[in-house]
Amino acid sequence: MLFKYRNEYKKIAMDMLSLLPEVNDIDFVEEEIEWYSNSNSRNIYLWRNKENNWAGLISVEEKSKNIIVRRIILTPESWSINNCCIMIDALSHIYIDKKVIGTMDTTSICEIWEKRKNDEPAE
């Protein structure tokens, strides 16, 4: 389940962002959270896995017809393409009228999600 970022989730979000390979100091993490917080079109969502543990973060930027997935982060023990797809699927239910697209870093995961979604049998 996705939870929209709120100030009380700051430590969790900081912990998730610190998992990024390019992070080498706390200032980067603080600036990243501030960048998302300073715009109504950018959001951070935290993800709880089926065991109800905080296990991931997905950050997005909303455009007129698209939702751009900027970051997908999972804890090492939770990392799998399946969990990435679960997070994107939950995101697509929040932004129901928008097409999910990725950045250079997230496009391949978004494409896998799109393919899986299109391959699901119709109910």
Q: Explain this structure to me?
A:
With 123 residues, the chain is of the alpha+beta class. The protein has a single domain (2-119), classed as Aminopeptidase, CATH 3.40.630.30. Helices cover 38% and strands 26% of the residues. It has a 5-stranded mixed β-sheet, sandwiched between helices. A hairpin with a 5-residue loop joins strand 2 (42-48) and strand 3 (54-62). The mean pLDDT is 94.
Briefly, what is this?
The chain is of the alpha+beta class and 123 residues long. It has a single domain, classed as Aminopeptidase.
CATH second-level architecture: 3-Layer(aba) Sandwich
Number of strands: 5
Q: Major sheet: size, sense and barrel closure?
A: 5 strands, mixed
The H-level CATH homologous superfamily, spelled out, is Gcn5-related N-acetyltransferase (GNAT)
Helix content: 25-40%
The N- and C-terminal alpha carbons lie at a distance of 23 Å
Q: What is the ordering of alpha helices and beta strands?
A: EHHEEEHEH
Percent of residues in β-strands? 25-35%
Tally of domains: 1
Low-confidence stretches: none
Strand order of the largest sheet: 1-2-3-4-5
Rg, alpha carbons: 14 Å
Let me know the average pLDDT: 94
What is the tally of helical segments? 4
Shape from CA axes? globular
Structural class: alpha+beta
